[in-house]
Amino acid sequence: MIKAVSAFTEEVDDIEQAIDDIKGQIGGCGELLGNTVGLLTCYSEFISSGVVKELCKALPFPVIGTTTIGNAVRGSSGRILLTLLVLTSDDVEFSTGLSEPLSGADSAPLRDAYERAASKINGRPSLMLSFAPLLVPVGGDFFAGAFSDISGGVPNFGMLAVDNNSDYRDSQVIADGDVYRDRYAFALIGGNANPRFYMASISTGRVFSQKGVVTSSAGNQVKSVNGRPVVEYLESLGLKRSEDGSIVGVNSFPFLLDYNDGTRPVVRVIFAITPDGYAVCGGDIPESGTLSVGSIDRDEVLATTTKLVSDVLATEKMECALMFSCVGRYFIQGYDPTGEMRRVQGLMDKTGVPYQFTYSGGELCPVSSNKGEGLTNRNHNDTFIMCVL
Known about the structure:
The structure is a single chain. The chain is 23% helix and 33% strand. By secondary structure, the protein is an alpha+beta fold. The strands form 4 sheets. Strands 14, 15, 16, 17, 18, 19, 20 and 21 form an 8-stranded antiparallel sheet that branches. Strand 4 and strand 5 (76-78) form a beta hairpin. Helix 1 crosses helix 3 and helix 7 packs parallel to helix 9.
């Protein structure tokens, strides 16, 4: 069985006070069991001030994590915040890993890191918790697919790093106090962790009924749907093209991609329309996949997340919950971007269950198959994901 405790500090500048805040909330580390790991997410200034480095030195267990634009644990939520979720157990094992620098779609550094970490636990891991770098050459689809091949399909739950800058230049992965812009940190959980996965993106009523088949694509660029240019497909749904050829408000109308393999569709946000008329998306879209288009706004973000968390709390018995939500959902909320986070905090704080909520640059979460073939690891956009232990 896994026990969990969460902690936070708002102290960016006073390192000793920040350490006292965290240690005080986790009982001075005196209640830890035989195996322990810490998951840390924070505003980037906690790194530059030295808090992250010294805090990790002061904790008697490995810590991995990432920067974020907003996070929450029991008792606090906000932007300029450091949160820590501690998992500890006598019968479940934890082993952390850190890849060598990643420069492209080469899975060798990931394989080496995974094999080193896996060799330290007994048997096949039951779960992988991931903190991936936000890199231009590779994205979440590469990470999801590579680790599925490397691990033989171990469920992979996690996020891509993000931060408070418009270009995410300070998004960093954290491993035992050191920080990296180009490495992948993760924790393998061995034993009967019994993870359960949930997600919310766009409700059925917000999805256009017309579907299309991808007839030409290249990676994350959709060229044609139903044999027609993708821009014409979007216009056929009522979306408007501006004088420069772009689609007005395209970021509020993401694709829902069905792989047609029996797994649940995933969301692919549309970032832009290229001068050639191609749709640039937040993840790969394979040819022969089926597309729908949905609409998302502040009300939809709040409604879908609130319903999911409420439903899970009504049916699950849990020791802890780990949650990530896309930074796109943060920005969609406009004048009050922390509304989703506060909704989650309001629901979770009432239960007394330790949890951690973090905004992400991409979500990694397994999806189930309606063919009864288990779980498939996927990369998601504009999605709220939840892992219950």
